[in-house]
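Running this now, will post back.
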Amino acid sequence: MAPILPKQKQRILQYLKEYIGIHSYAPTLTEIAKEFQLSSLATVHEHLGFLEDRGFIRRVAGEDRGIRIIERTQEDPDRSWSPSVLLPLVGVITAGKPIEAIERPDESIAVPEEIAQRKNAYVLKVRGDSMIESLIADGDYVVVEKTDYASDGDMVVAMLEDGTATLKKLFRKKNFVRLQPANKAYKPIDVPNVIVQGKVLGVLRSFQPV
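Update: finished.
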């Protein structure tokens, strides 16, 4: 999967691409700092180092405008730019015992378009290990389509009657709904009814906050 960019670094990368596209050369560090109202060139160096370490740009030592964009290639897909969209990080969801969601409405994450699929989506941080056999670990982020419909076997954000939420696979039985973990250490949660708040589209494992 292509690296995931925090929103500020995504904006800086987009600025670099647009600037180079117009001028055929890169902006200086001072110009980048002015564009993003950064008071320190050290902060610019930090952002550019992040982009270079993850294969989005290459810097040429000794050149004032020595920034090169590394374009996406078939031969090296892991060090390439993937089109992305900004989605809101709206809180924390448990892959364990249900807890109340922790809202963070002011944060966003850059998510590859192929995961978001242009749907009404948002991001939740996962707490707990009940879905590890579905390759979702504590600290991962899940991209969730906002919907109240899910088919049997879908991984969903389920709201229980007491107002707590959990991340599980959903199965409808004759007289109850089963929320199935993906970890043998956890038992299924059987409840009369749940409110589906969303369906998982994908998982992010490489997000780093700004």
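Residues 73-81, 206-210 have pLDDT under 50 and may be disordered. More later if anyone needs it.
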